[in-house]
Amino acid sequence: xxxxxxxxxxxxxxxxxxxxxxxxxxxxxxxxxxxxxxxxxxxxxxxxxxxxxxxxxxxxxxxxxxxxxxxxxxxxxxxxxxxxxxxxxxxxxxxxxxxxxxxxxxxxxxxxxxxxxxxxxxxxxxxxxxxxxxxxxxxxxxxxxxxxxxxxxxxxxxxxxxxxxxxxxxxxxxxxxxxxxxxxxxxxxxxxxxxxxxxxxxxxxxxxxxxxxxxxxxxxxxxxxxxxxxxxxxxxxxxxxxxxxxxxxxxxxxxxxxxxxxxxxxxxxxxxxxxxxxxxxxxxxxxxxxxxxxxxxxxxxxxxxxxxxxxxxxxxxxxxxxxxxxxxxxxxxxxxxxxxxxxxxxxxxxxxxxxxxxxxxxxxxxxxxxxxxxxxxxxxxxxxxxxxxxxxxxxxxxxxxxxxxxxxxx
Length: 410
What we know:
Blueprint: E1 3-8, E2 14-15, E3 31-35, H1 41-46, E4 80-82, H2 84-90, E5 94-99, H3 109-122, E6 127-131, H4 135-147, E7 150-156, H5 161-169, E8 173-177, H6 181-195, E9 198-199, H7 207-212, H8 214-222, E10 230-234, H9 239-253, E11 262-268, H10 273-280, H11 305-315, E12 318-322, H12 324-338, H13 344-359, E13 367-372, H14 380-387, H15 398-407
Parallel strand pairs: 5-13, 6-7, 6-9, 7-8, 10-11, 10-13, 11-12
Antiparallel strand pairs: 1-2, 1-3, 4-5
Helix pairs in contact: 2-12, 3-4, 4-5, 8-9, 9-11, 10-11, 12-13, 12-14
């Protein structure tokens, strides 16, 4: 563990480890965690037999969970594989898919929640609260349960039923909020302050980024300690994009990669305040009324929008906006072309990749990593819509099957 303290992402003020636990006390901007990066990090990593995200313990600001902590020690370690049919259909060169749907609870948010839980334990906390559209709450519920901590989860009442079921199964204290994700976020913040409960809220808890950055450590090592030309990420609050950027900067500082890939953020039309700020050349992100089928990236007031903007600008990337029908189409396309079952927020990245290819921002000369952030089992209703017409029902006879096969021959 090498936690040195935090630095304000806006005013640059430095704080000792015990001085600031959420946002900057001075200007209330998001905090960046400072980690002492060891020069021999690669040797330490490669000497580890661990295949989870805890393989990268030398680059993390929390202690590694023990074997008695169960699922808390299993986050990460997801596959990276080539998707040649995706590349072919989009007119691109090499497309890799990093499938975070293989996480213990089915989304990249397991990485963040595992680190936050370890930080809460270090502080001696017994309860953790968070607002979530579903995935972050599910991840926290599972990781907190493994650590013997109480998780209190606030989700919009419109959250997909599958995510609500997961939350209930993991034993969280779950409350459906009559309102938006932003309403739930404000309530969790207020509860943390007034009721003295440790808060995991995305963006305002600086340790969420530290968990999410591990996805880049895996990508770089899986590629033989090098960086791709571009990484495409779906964006809601902006925190995953911030985590990807932080991880890449850590790797570059250690000489484990020799360049920063261009980062491309994808937002849904009904929830695109960061993309709009990028298009306008603005330095602020204006609140919008969020409405999209991709619930996991529905955030009208992004808690990490400014750092996400910075990540894209500093790497020479861009933002792209996609429609809900494009997101729905991409669920089916990913299944057909890559055998990946993605929830809407994850398939949004594929829809964005398609648009970037059309616009010529990515070409056959680019090696691209497509970050798939969550499994389609999170929102089966969306998958049913994406699948289209229901399959035919036939009698249990060979003539009936033969007739249907002949009739439906491609």
